[in-house]
Amino acid sequence: MYQSIKNTFIDIFDQEPLLVYSPGRINLIGEHTDYNGGFVLPAAIDKKMVVAIAENDSQKGRIYSVDFEEEFSFDIMSFSPKNGHWATYVMGVVSQLQQAGYVVKGFDMVFGGDIPVGAGLSSSAALECAVGFALSELFGFEIPKKSLVHYAQKAEHTFAGVQCGIMDQFASAMGKKGYAIRLDCRTLNFDYFPIDLGDYKILLIDTQVKHSLADSAYNKRRLECEEGVRAAQQIQADVRDLRDVSLDLLDQLSIDAVVYDRCKYVIEENQRVLDSCELLGKGDLIGFGKQVYQSHHGLSKLYEVSCEELDFLVDYTKEIPEVLGSRMMGGGFGGCTINIVHQDIIEKLQKDISEAYQKNFNKFPKFYIVSPEDGTGFL
Ligand code: GAF
């Protein structure tokens, strides 16, 4: 893949590029907690967005997307978001760097990769991080990775219009082989948490659907959480995020039932991340698996970001003792479930689930076995 992206670059732009990459991510547990000042446990994976880049002597950013087989060119000094277009993510990062005072000159870029789009593996965060890193290296900005994470997230807010948390960009940039990242999304303090699952593997099952309300529902959930925070501040002034709200305090708030459910889910999920780290630290995979199932229950029934296809996949695994845990992963409304599965049954499980899923939804799911890998870097 890298070689073909490099060759495409040389064919189009007739010069040698710098090659960098940034990976997709999984999240073991801690969904929709990042923008509530809470904890998450993501990891980078072995699926990457690759960017080939070189300077040009124009005032233009000239980009070619291998996956979309499409070119796009924009004036470095004057550009605006292009709704729903892949180039928006690239321009969003350029804009953030410029606002931070970095002088971005004309560049040629080719990008592509093997992160399935719309599968909840954060291909857009990977693109943003790869573009930020590529520009920083090309022009000698020497931007620390944590700042790149910040610019990548802001690019998503301002250009793509999704008020995402910090998790995806952080995991893509900071991942480490063999480890998940135990991240405090309020302070951005983190440590690398060893992931040793013994005979168990992380199996992602891709529903092959992404329901269209995903982005708008995401922003709506954020507003509902903020409503809960405002109500809590009436009683306890030092509350900053839902992370500071206990279930006892939640019970005292005057909020409607929907906001109550959203807040309850987040408060419980935050605790599940902490409990899961403790369980994983003790090697209690069965205990961890239960937390994973509970996480899905909350996401589906209280936070209401699951869908029929995701619920089907999770429910299917519940009767199988070799599956320790299963839940939807990422923002929701489609994408993948993450499953902790004994290696001996993976093949059979894939076959059985494929058949059952096809019968119900008239399409086949896809499967990816993944493990924690390194974050953004050079190729
Ligand atoms: C999406 C967002 F981009 C993340 O910030 C996070 O909120 C996630 O949904 C849900 O946990 O991937």
Strand order of the largest sheet: 5-4-6-3-1-13
Largest β-sheet summary: 6 strands, mixed
> Which outline best applies?
globular
* Number of distinct helices: 11
Assembly category: single chain
Average predicted local confidence, pLDDT: 97
Indicate the structural class: alpha+beta
Structure overview:
- The protein has 379 residues and is α+β, with helices and mostly antiparallel strands.
- Helices cover 42% and strands 23% of the residues.
- It contains 11 helices and 13 strands.
- The strands form 3 sheets. Strands 5-4-6-3-1-13 form a 6-stranded mixed β-sheet, sandwiched between helices.
- Strand 10 (323-328) and strand 11 (334-342) form a beta hairpin.
- Helix 2 (87-99) crosses helix 4 (145-160) and helix 3 (123-138) crosses helix 4 (145-160).
- The chain starts with a helix and ends with a strand.
- 2-deoxy-2-fluoro-alpha-D-galactopyranose binds next to helix 5.
